[in-house]
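Hello everyone,

My group is preparing for a crystallization screen and wants a predicted model to guide construct design. The compound we'll soak is copper (II) ion. Before spending weeks at the bench, it would help to have a computed complex in hand. I've included the protein sequence and the ligand's SMILES below. Output in structure-token form would be ideal because that's what our pipeline reads.
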Amino acid sequence: MMKQLNLSLATSMVAAVLAGSVAPSVAVADDPQNTPIPAFGSQCLSCHGEDGRPELADVPIIAGQQPIYLANALRHYKSGERTGGQALVMQEMVKNLSDEQIVALSQWFGAQQ
Amino acid sequence: MTKIKRRTFLKGAAALSASGALLHRFAGGTSAQAQEAATLTARSPLGISDDLFNPPEISSINGQLRTNIYMGFNKVILPSGPTILRNFNNSLPGPTLRINAGDTLELAFENRLPENRPDQPTEVNIPNHFNTTNLHYHGFHVSPKGNSDNVYLNIEPGEKFNYVVQVPRDHPAGSYWYHPHRHGSVSAQVAQGAAGMAIIAGALDDVPEIKEAVERVLVIQAPIPGVDGILDSEDPIWPLDAERDFLVNGEYKPRIYIREGEVQRWRILHAGDAQFFPFKIDGLEIYEIGRDGNPLPEARLVEEVHLSPGNRVDVLVKGATPGAYLLRRPFFDQGKQSLPPVHLANIFVIPANDSRVPPGTPFGREIPKGPLPDNPILVDITDAEITHRRKIVLGVEDVKGYFHDTLFTINDEPFDPKRDDVVSRLGAVEEWTLINKTPFPHPIHIHVNPFQVMSVNGVADPDKPWMDTIAVPAAGTVVFRTRFLDFDGRYVMHCHILPHEDTGMMINVNIEP
Ligand SMILES: [Cu+2]
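Reply:
Good plan to model first. Here are the tokens for the complex, ready for your pipeline.
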């Protein structure tokens, strides 16, 4: 547990340096992995799990996936390019999300380790 | 009223029953009640005293089944101890009703429960008034109006009501059931075991191999007692793991006998309140022949049988080598909830010439080969027939002030008895896509007209089975097609996890003439 905390702190500090941030304390606060999911994304968690790791067998793991891939998938659910079967469930979930919200959620899930 | 009290056994006593020391019960006989109905007491179809008894049975005579059904307090001994349940006719489960297509059910119904307590919620989607009730004929294609299959009725304590249910001549034959359906108290009453099998004879029954087989009725239930006596709160039945001790025909871990080489026909009803019941019998062959009463294309050997609350399945079970076998529900996940294994019954395969079985007892030996008979009116619905398509979205919301701050929704709305959610007309043929936004499966049941299942999670079902209750998987979808035939009027579609129904997961369907 201790080790995990240290690792996560180290990762966020590296991220902070790369992002050009000066103060590590600010970097920790900005770390998406330690930030709660935006309110408009809270509905994702019931099936995809609190950290993007689902407890349901047929629900994919989206934690740590590339945000660009996640955003693309969400846009395709919204537009109906991905349809039928469980894609219909996703279409219901994303139909009212703006593109900014889609990007924000993709970054949040992508940042979950 | 039957004089024979159905018994269940303490967990300690169940150990005795496993060693063969089950208490003696009485074998039944047929008697006619003034030409109104024939009654059969609970009995073993093999005539063996410690065998599982079929529930008591009431059958029609000359096209009529006229009998008394009442809801009242029933003293029982559950595996968890003695308690009092709300049951039909002092019987757990209620008596089996057996009729033919074209018959009329005339049930003089009486609510013998005492007055409701005064402090009842007035909000429609908070469980309330557990002593108010009514009757629903699950799977029946009959009128939803007046004194027929009308689930909007409130039959109050002390009230009587005469149901007259005219079953059409071309009604599909099969295994159906009846249970209370008053919104607000349906989960509490069914969770306590208020339910019974209803059989419409024909179709499969006339297949020679099935006709010569012994017939069993198995009603699976896990009655939930009140915390201190009579159940007067939804709390004990609310958690998905609330159902603990599953019974068959009111018996805990009963014995079921099959003779060596024998094929028995079992009509199985899942009358539980919430948990799914997948089951298997290690070492014995199970062939499915019908689901929700409707025949499958042919008898099909299955590893595991899947039942959600409300479903029926007709199976043939073959007795192989003499010995003891276990009928069990394996460990499984119901959505996000892990549920424990259940040891439901002990199957004993006995010698073919066992002297306890009276001479003349039916002895089926064959599994039917080739196609099973159709129910003639259940013809495949083609693409060209579809007159309308709809999307039905299943959801759940946290809303302060409701039971456990929970509201279940369909198309984002909890149940409103005044709102018509679906309006269509007689003769319409519709395709509905059910979309489940929640992490739990919901077995969805629609009244009056059965539907043909096209796909689950986008995977087409080659059998396109006719059902009346279908589990929509967690975060999954189901597509079904249905014809609105013969009966106009208002009725409902809802989740058969009944605590979900009572907290909002139900809509009104209004079929205009
Ligand atoms: Cu449900």
